[in-house]
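Hi R.,

Quick one: here's the Glutathione S-transferase kappa sequence you asked about.
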Amino acid sequence: MSVARAKIIFYYDLISPYTFMGKKLLNRYRQQWPDVDIVYKPILLGGIMNSVKNQPLFNFPSKRNHMIADLDRISTLSGVPFKFPENFPVNTVLPMRVLTALQKHEATEKYEQCIDKDEYFVHGRNISQPEVIQTALTPILSNSDAKVQSYLQMAGQADIKQAFKENTDEAVARGVFGAPTMIIKKAGESEDKEYLFFGSDRFEVIAAFLGLPYPGLVPKNGAGAKL
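And here's the predicted structure, written out as tokens:
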């Protein structure tokens, strides 16, 4: 069976600052890519790193310092708001399991709005805390505290834990070694044929690979313009 439309499968963990930046940029580019399906899959980045014996950038002071400076430059050029949090890293198991439950039970639009919050890499709030998750998601989920509480409870259920683990295992099986990683499927090609792209700076290459327009890193209204 061949793929009817191009697809981008975006593996993410909220702990990754480059994933945050990549998601924001993909939000921008997808407006000009109406024939591409985009699927966001929550994973545990620590689990990926352990499986492939990779180490995060923040383990090395020189790489950590470069990462922060690099992200600040990208923010200035792209207009994507960004501020590296003081409490980095934090444990994202709870919010990622909540997002796994949201993906299963909520409409895609609501789920993607929940991913897109600026709690950690703009406002510096500790997203490992249930009360921070509650405050962030309640306005999206019909201003219902009870609804968010139900998702916080689901995060501890066996089926959600298993689904989250399966996402992470699936990513490893596909060759994922960090985040963000995008698995690309081309329209017209076999369903089992896929291509891996790693990093938030791969969108120009992805656009060329799929024959799509590339709007560029700098917004049309100039550097520093906010989204």
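Residues 6-210 form a domain with the Glutaredoxin fold (CATH 3.40.30.10).

Cheers,
M.
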